[in-house]
């Protein structure tokens, strides 16, 4: 298999939840992971995150970022790794770095807002969720805004945001 085939097979395995198969694909092709391309380290880092090996996953994804500092994908993966490990402050920082590369990436601002909220940075979460709701109105964006507002004691505004969320996603009721 060539590099693209290995990476594709590993990514497909990860997507279907078969982390062992994904790991086998990567480690068979690159027994010395430090010699692997950034994308392989990225995928193995994501696998390590799913396995609960956050420190190793972080190290792998950060090495991919070091090789490709303008890669939006690697920074988002780092944010997801942190968020999956309940490290929401670092997740917010990783998403913020990704937003500096591409502020228009679909769904990124919402991930940032959620991480900020979960990190207890409610005023910043309000700002990010407001932007997310304006850029791509969704029940989740409005709900995140509502939560951030409620956490700050802005109950009337939180209620309005919750109503906007329900208008888009009545099943939230």
Q: Could you give the topology of this structure?
A:
Elements (H helix, E strand, L loop, with lengths): L2 H13 L3 H11 L8 H13 L3 H14 L4 H13 L3 H14 L6 H11 L3 H14 L3 H13 L3 H14 L5
Helix pairs in contact: 1-2, 1-3, 2-3, 3-4, 3-5, 4-5, 5-6, 6-7, 7-8, 7-9, 8-9, 9-10
How would you portray this structure in words?
- By secondary structure, the protein is mainly α.
- 75% of the residues lie in helices and 0% in strands.
- The protein has 10 helices and no strands.
- The chain has helices at residues 3-15, 19-29, 38-50, 54-67, 72-84, 88-101, 108-118, 122-135, 139-151, 155-168.
- Helix 8 (122-135) packs antiparallel against helix 9.
- The protein is elongated.
- The protein starts with a helix and ends in a 5-residue tail after the last helix.
- The model has no long low-confidence stretch (mean pLDDT 95).
Give structural attributes:
0% strand, mainly alpha, 173 residues, single chain
* Helix-and-strand structural type: mainly alpha
Total E-strand runs: 0
Average pLDDT reading: 95
Q: What spatial form do the alpha-carbon principal axes imply?
A: elongated
- Order of SSEs, N→C? HHHHHHHHHH
Helix content: over 70%
Strand content: under 5%
Rg, Cα atoms, Å: 18 Å
Number of helices: 10
* Termini Cα gap: 50 Å
Taking the sheet with the most strands, its summary is:
none
Which regions contain 5 or more consecutive residues with pLDDT less than 50? Answer: none
């Amino acid at each position: 298999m060539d590099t693209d085939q290995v990476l594709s097979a590993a990514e497909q395995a990860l997507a279907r939840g078969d982390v062992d198969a994904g790991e086998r694909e990567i480690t068979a092709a690159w027994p010395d992971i430090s010699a692997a391309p950034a994308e392989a380290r990225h995928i193995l880092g994501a696998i390590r995150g799913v396995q609960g090996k956050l420190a190793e996953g972080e190290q792998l994804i950060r090495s991919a970022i070091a090789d490709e500092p303008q890669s939006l994908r690697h920074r988002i993966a780092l944010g997801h790794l942190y968020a999956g490990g309940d490290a929401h402050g670092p997740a917010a920082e990783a998403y913020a770095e990704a937003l500096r590369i591409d502020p228009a990436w679909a769904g990124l601002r919402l991930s940032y807002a959620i991480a900020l909220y979960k990190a207890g940075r409610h005023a910043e979460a309000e700002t990010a969720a407001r932007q997310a709701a304006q850029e791509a109105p969704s029940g989740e964006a409005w709900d995140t805004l509502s939560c951030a507002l409620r956490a700050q004691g802005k109950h009337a505004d939180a209620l309005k945001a919750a109503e906007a969320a329900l208008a888009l996603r009545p099943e939230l009721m």
